[in-house]
TrEMBL record:
Belongs to the SLC41A transporter family. GO terms for molecular function: monoatomic cation transmembrane transporter activity. The keyword Membrane applies. This is SLC41A/MgtE integral membrane domain-containing protein.
Amino acid sequence: MSETEKTSGRRDRVRERLQNRPRLRPTVYGYLTEEKESLRQGFAALFLSSVGELVAGIVLAGISGTLDELVGLAVLIPAAIGMRGAIFGAMGSRLSTSIQTGLFELSLRRGVLAENAQAAAVLSLVSGVFLAFLARFLCGVLGVPTELTVFDYVVISTVGGILAGLLLLGITVFVARLSVSRGWDMDNIAAPMLTAAGDILTLPALVLTTYLIGIPIFSNVLAVALILIATTAVGLGLRLGAANLKRILAESLPILALTGTVMTLVGLALEDRKEVFVTLPALFILLPAFLQEGGALGGILSSRLSSKVHLGLLAPRGIPEPRAFRDFTLTYIFAVGVYLFIGGASHWIAVALGQLSPEVLASLGLGTGQLSPGFLVMLGVSALAGLMATTAAVLAAYYGSTVSYRFGLDPDTYGIPIITAAVDLLGFMSLIIALNIFDLTG
């Protein structure tokens, strides 16, 4: 039997298993019972990622002093951390589909995993350089004050991205291997775990690389070398890479450029609104978790929809089929628990920070006044803004997957970057709207 026949047989068995699952009565209880394994895996991954995102929020609150010293650095932060989630979230989605279609092979020398690892490395390099030039350009055009040169941005963005990317690559491979060995559905766990890991790793990496800038000659030479390496890597990948690698790069570069542009605009908005977050550190703690959990929720939905489209279980229609609304419902169920959790947790973490000595708070760039607007207010802000962000994620996930598939593109490659851009921009706007409603922006 040929390899093609084996692959086709594995795909048919997966499709048959999903189609022939026992169907319960069309009630809420019946639906939740049928999806209990997805709920268990999804909530476990989302709450684990929420804890990680809150750690990232503490780090972000703790570097508020650095943000004040390096004016303009806040512009880069949402784009840099969001790009890690977009690159490796899309990689996780592609690997999940390859597992379900029987094409996955645990090898970094050949096959789907090797090609995705090579693509992630090249995209991490190129995106770092791209975001640096974009951030500096937009600061100049829009008149946003910054003390950083374009070479400073290149060093911070690219070196920080490489450091975080190497660790994320290892985590992605580990999650794929664990999914195969344990029989888990990687669609339910990849997006939240990888976005959380991206935030936790990228923020400290960016802060660490700020120590490389300002060194006479060295930082400029390093920036030029990084630009040349990134240009060479993408050129070689597109010309000499395997067919699947070329396709991933060709499809990823435009959508990641769009994603990076949108997220840099979020960074500009953050720089403009930075004062309210510095004044109430609970909001700084909430911010990474809020933005990335929206992306994680959309990532779960996008991965599930992409896999079903690939397997022929869902038609890529303009108006969603009734079965698509089952996945939408699952996403909103996840959202209720996650946004209430991160809202309440952000408050209590801020309260705990408030117990530190004035000297420690000063070293973190935090004041000694009120660090949170209150428990109920934080729940209300997170839940209200989360409802709006989840709706944006659902729409971006469905139409990102279906439209890309209808144009002959890989929905795994396009789904998560589209969601990352949409949820970061609309999610930040939703958060600002909620803050206005609760009168916290004055």
